[in-house]
Amino acid sequence: xxxxxxxxxxxxxxxxxxxxxxxxxxxxxxxxxxxxxxxxxxxxxxxxxxxxxxxxxxxxxxxxxxxxxxxxxxxxxxxxxxxxxxxxxxxxxxxxxxxxxxxxxxxxxxxxxxxxxxxxxxxxxxxxxxxxxxxxxxxxxxxxxxxxxxxxxxxxxxxxxxxxxxxxxxxxxxxxxxxxxxxxxxxxxxxxxxxxxxxxxxxxxxxxxxxxxxxxxxxxxxxxxxxxxxxxxxxxxxxxxxxxxxxxxxxxxxxxxxxxxxxxxxxxxxxxxxxxxxxxxxxxxxxxxxxxxxxxxxxxxxxxxxxxxxxxxxxxxxxxxxxxxxxxxxxxxxxxxxxxxxxxxxxxxxxxxxxxxxxxxxxxxxxxxxxxxxxxxxxxxxxxxxxxxxxxxxxxxxxxxxxxxxxxxxxxxxxxxxxxxxxxxxxxxxxxxxxxxxxxxxxxxxxxxxxxxxxxxxxxxxxxxxxxxxxxxxxxxxxxxxxxxxxxxxxxxxxxxxxxxxxxxxxxxxxxxxxxxxxx
Length: 520
What we know:
- The protein is mostly helical.
- It has 19 helices and two strands.
- The protein is elongated.
- 79% of the residues lie in helices and 1% in strands.
- The chain has helices at residues 3-11, 15-40, 46-66, 69-77, 83-101, 122-145, 152-168, 175-208, 213-240, 249-276, 282-286, 290-325, 336-364, 370-390, 396-428, 434-446, 449-462, 470-479, 487-519; strands at residues 105-107, 331-333.
- It has two domains: 12-411 and 485-519, no CATH class; 412-479, no CATH class.
């Protein structure tokens, strides 16, 4: 089935279309079954490994359906890429990141949140990891169906914690680690939102609030693109390639700087030529951010594939290692077949079920254009770099969605603030003719940010007895408040974030007891 045919299933969702998507997903899991049965069916615990491989493929598809939307959603929502183009780019680069830079070994206990010393034997460990993997996948499936982008890392962490407690009691858990993970629920979206809002305000002050936007864009856009190149090159060296080439932060930063200078020298004349041919207006200036956004979506997908494929294949690699060697190890090798399960599963899940979350992130939280999407991409890369240096555990999902919220809430603030300025002007012109008021408002709207501030200051100096009281401003703030972030989407996503670890943990504990009961 061609990519366009898959997209048509999403554009016109029907019962037949859902059956086709389900059939493709089941066909992928069937391939995993026949492959693993052929190669591992003769092992003493071969059937367990076959089941674990199928669960790993299911988990990988759910990661593709839910988590990849964060990388390409803003790009699609801003119309820098079509849905089909975004899925194609993300699928290629996610798979490439997983296979090229996914690593040769993986920690068997995700984030060190439980102590394997409390487990009695390798069998208990295998049952624990199977329960954790299945619980994480089920929770991602539920969240995707509800249209809530959640952290796949938190899903598997909750699963490991819940199954670990079921297997070894409360003492098995590393509670300080869990405290750090809980803190990341707040830290990740907050930092991402602040950075994205800061970049959006910078672009507004330096480009869209200027009289000659084209001239301002010719100066600023090359600098912004170079800054993006610096951030993404550093991000890619630190995170995307960390499994194949480890380096320190200073080296990564210098490599990023060299890339940024080269990109600046390359794009500056091109952007100048393109800007000269554009008609005046914000919509035209937005087009200058399109190509950088496409590169950002590709690089974010590559880094995501390199890092988050471990959420699918890590537990599977741990199970494979425990069954093959009959013992629990702190590190497990990732066989090529395990990595292929993760890489292909992510790509298939993205193509089949990813569009729902791509639309949620790209257009259902707040309206995005290319400039806003650019700021979100910048926030995603910079936040991970800062968090890595500070040793803070962060979620790429929470960062990206937090950045979308940050952009939306800044727009709300600016719109409301502008409406209050207009009311302030009207209050200062009480008693004057409508023509005089309209003429002043036209001059105010055409003025730069600095000129507007000066005009308001002059009005207040001349007419100190008029203007809005604090009580009036508070009342009008409620009247003119522009809700540019959809509150229903905001509350749904926040609720899903809060319950991710407990929900996957409870499911994992129940599944562990079920698996243990069947195996004993």
